[in-house]
Specification:
159 residues, alpha+beta, Alpha-Beta Plaits, 5-stranded antiparallel β-sheet, 4 helices, molybdenum cofactor biosynthesis, lyase, cyclic pyranopterin monophosphate synthase activity, MoaC_bact/euk
Length: 159
């Protein structure tokens, strides 16, 4: 098995041992899209949702989720994140909200899972807050779009 595998020499699932890895600056960006109907888009544009600041609540949910990733994803390392950001952008012409997250730290393991968790939970929160207006919303395109640091260095997704 690979030195950095979640499978032990005897075939059991385990947490990867990163003790011998160097501490480096690492960051990851992820995105997700929430597609919705015209009524939900108009509600967001007006900013008068009866549940309050839906983008603000979704942002905070994403940030909190990133900080708890190791509680949600088995075998994920608990990390001391130095930055978590979540941005929600209404793309009305596409009938969607784009969510981008960024997670940073100086450590021995990457933060892709934290960035993906932040974007996913922000999308789920937005869905929850708007589902009374559009039960047919879709969450799509959740992926890592950029990674910096670590052994593999810089990577960006192609469109």
């Amino acid at each position: 098995m690979s030195e950095f595998s979640h499978v032990s020499a005897n075939g059991e699932a385990n947490m990867v041992d990163v003790s011998d890895k160097a501490v480096t600056h690492r960051q990851a960006h992820a995105e997700a899209f929430v597609y919705m109907n015209d009524e939900a888009i108009a509600l967001i544009q007006r900013g008068d949702h009866h549940k309050g600041d839906i983008f603000g609540v979704s942002r905070i949910a994403g940030i909190q989720a990133a900080k708890r990733t190791s509680d949600l994803i088995p075998l994920c390392h608990p990390l001391m994140l130095t930055k978590v950001g979540v941005e929600l952008t209404l793309e009305a012409s596409e009938n969607r909200v784009r969510i981008e997250s960024v997670c940073k730290l100086d450590g021995k393991t990457g933060v892709e899972m934290e960035a993906l968790t932040a974007a996913s939970v922000a999308a789920l929160t937005l869905f929850d807050m708007c589902k009374a207006v559009d039960q047919g919303m879709r969450i799509e395109g959740t992926r890592v779009i950029k990674k910096v640091g670590g052994k593999s260095g810089h990577w960006e997704a192609s469109e």
